Amino acid sequence: CFPFSRNATILADALNRRGYHAVPERMADAHGKAIYAVVIGSYRRPREARAAALALQRSGYPAYLFGGR
User: Fold this and answer.
1) Per DSSP, what are the bridge partners of residue 28?
2) Given CB 3.0 to 4.6 Å as the disulfide criterion, which of 33, 43, 63, 64 pairs with 49?
3) pTM metric for this prediction
């Protein structure tokens, strides 16, 4: 997550160039303040999401899983 949308856009663009479907998304932190996360993919199975997160982590990206909307 980033405090500025531009940072999330830069990361999303970099991930898209590497073959991931990544989009920046505005969210709210615990205090209601706007933050910008980069959301990657929608997975049918938790193990697929975990594998994608692990691949990103191994490539040097901080990747975390969170439940869908």
Assistant:
1) 34
2) 43
3) 0.75
